[in-house]
Automatic annotation (TrEMBL):
Name of a matching Pfam family: Transket_pyr
Name under which the protein is recorded: 3-methyl-2-oxobutanoate dehydrogenase (2-methylpropanoyl-transferring)
Organism annotation: Bizionia hallyeonensis
Keywords, alphabetical: Oxidoreductase, Thiamine pyrophosphate
Transmembrane segments: none
InterPro entries per record: DH_E1, THDP-binding, Transketo_C/PFOR_II, Transketolase-like_Pyr-bd, Transketolase_C
Domain of life: Bacteria
Matches recorded under CDD domains: TPP_E1_PDC_ADC_BCADC
Amino acid sequence: MKANPEVNKDLSFEDFKAEVLNDYHLAVTSRECSLLGRREVLSGKAKFGIFGDGKEVPQLAMAKAFKNGDFRSGYYRDQTFMMAIGKLNIEQFFAGLYANTDLKEEPMSAGRQMGGHFSTQSLDEHGNWKNLLEQKNSSSDISPTAGQMPRLLGLAQASKIYRHVKGIDTTNFSNEGNEVAWGTIGNASTSEGLFFETINAAGVLQVPMVMSVWDDEYGISVHAKHQTTKENISEILKGFQRENDEKGYEILRVIGWDYPALIETYQKASKIAREEHVPVLIHVQELTQPQGHSTSGSHERYKNEERLAWEVERDCNSKLREWIIANGIATDEDLSSVEKTIKKQVRDGKKAAWTAFTQPLKNEKIELVALLEKVAAASSNKVFIEKLKNDLADNSEPIRKDILSTARKALRYVVNETSETKNELAAWINSYIAEVQPKYSSHLYSHSDKSALKVQEVKPTYDDSSEEVDARLVIRDNFDAIFSKYPEALIFGEDAGHIGDVNQGLEGMQEKYGELRVSDVGIREATILGQGIGMAMRGLRPIAEIQYLDYILYALQIMSDDLASLHYRTKGRQKAPVIIRTRGHRLEGIWHSGSQMGGVIHLIRGIHVLVPRNMTKAAGFYNTLLEGDEPALIVECLNGYRLKEKMPTNIGEFKTPLGVVETIREGNDITLVSYGSTLRVIEQAAKELQEVGINAEIIDVQSLLPFDLNHDIVKSVAKTNRLMVIDEDVPGGASAYILNEVLNTQNAYKHLDSKPETLTAKAHRPAYGTDGDYFSKPSVEDVFEAVYNVMHESNPSDFPKLR
């Protein structure tokens, strides 16, 4: 069941009645799901509930204006909208509440997100794009408030790119840029910086975005007077209203229970955004929240009797019911009959969803109980194993934790026994984990044939005419080749356009490819990334430039909460292969120090993190990623643009592989591992170490995520028997991550004759200036002395103590 997506002014009265009653049916169905959903949480069947009650009628109006090809980027109140566009039914609603891991039963996230977080599937089971023009689309929701805003900007900007940039294959993605991106947010969350940053950016870019603010005057227990100046978001955004020839927003206000006015408002907003590419803000006022914020508390704690009575009076479903009766569309008896029928449908749907969720678990329980009976019969600890078996058998509604925990505990009782049943139990546990674990862990990265890990290395080639040039020219000419080869590729960032970026790596690109493909943007890192996410979700290949690595922190929440988890939280059914370009390493000053790698790599699992030591390696990574389908962060060496590199003859074609290290200096006394600009320091130190008889092997990590997939570092350690990780990050940062990978994943500890060492920057940010760098981050002398001390410990006669 779904709302009619078009409003036909020529409807007969009978057709009009049918459409209104269908809308009422949807509104009541959604409300009953919310009411019953709360009870399921309070009964313990579901873990947590957050519902869309009180917002039903405006969502029906939005659904009528929402067309195939459009995208939603909303928040966890939009269940009615999803039902109205035909992407959520009763069973799926409850499957999400129960966290069913079957994607067929729970198509939003296969149980990986709590209920109320919605999405549609942009990809098939093989990771290939579906035809997004033949369906209504919803980008996958996230819980962090206002976190949906940055990607909304990109979803809208994609329509502008598709409308105005020639040569892009728009099949599956756009009909001449006529698609609208629809955003939703609660009134309290408009206080977040991400909301204001996005609103400003959309006004500057003039993109087809319709932003709905569901206003129920509260943010959990906090009233709007503590949230918003003048208690009114549209009032304080008046300055964004377009006037005469001044570009801006169309700002509309509407009462959230006024059904005809809502439909008219949303049709108007759709027309403006779709045809004119002007952003629209719709402030939907006088909404309610009948059950409070979530199942974690009751709104009676913070709303007085007067307010609660006001909410009952203005409940949008009740108001729609009154309007239907007043206009002779149906009688009270008619609607009562409909409501009774819906209650039964929701109860039946809930039961069906619960059965679908629990039956596989019951089957797994039965299988283990039978096995434990055999194990107990053959064991001297029969009484203990039977206790475990009986407890599990008595559990009428087990979860997988109960099942696996029981099996693992039973295995302990037979650990000292020799029997076929013991082996069978151990095999069952291993098989169960192998089958079940992916239900919760798969698809952090691409499983498709387009995975960046499957792109084969192509080395740069040179001939006698290859010149030594400033390295920036290598990256520049490679971007030129990329923009020529991929019409859907574009880049944007602070200073990226007119001046060709601060290091001239994009020199002349805007003049050649136009302002829409090589663009300057304002100082607003979170929405720069958001532009990339949204456009990548609609088939474009954006490169979002964050000027310096330190500024990544402004976008880190979106990288971590949205981009890094997108493929995972949709179980491989959405992707955003955006490339994030930035610069770092050996910078000067507290806020230009490039020392956040430890935090970055731990917060953005799901995004590849690549740290090339020069521009040729960096260019190769761009070429690799554009053949793949995954997001990545590339950190170029800021102090490398003016260094000399040979210009490859196969510019645009060579590819640097992900997860592959490179040995850049052979040696047999110690293995030195690092990345980025620090390698130049290490190379100089290695030359000086050679002068005192120490022959160091140097390995360039190149790729932190993924890390050394071929386990080449342990091969080096097996030869040298010593290991040192050198990093400009703080102690315990990326160096600790690298050491863990080498020692624990690759088991290099087996080959060590000396304690593995790390040499890092100081715990503080680097002070300004050359001396600040010298006394803050590893220097040539630091590396020399640290390596020398390792050799002194093992051979003090040949290497007497330095100091």
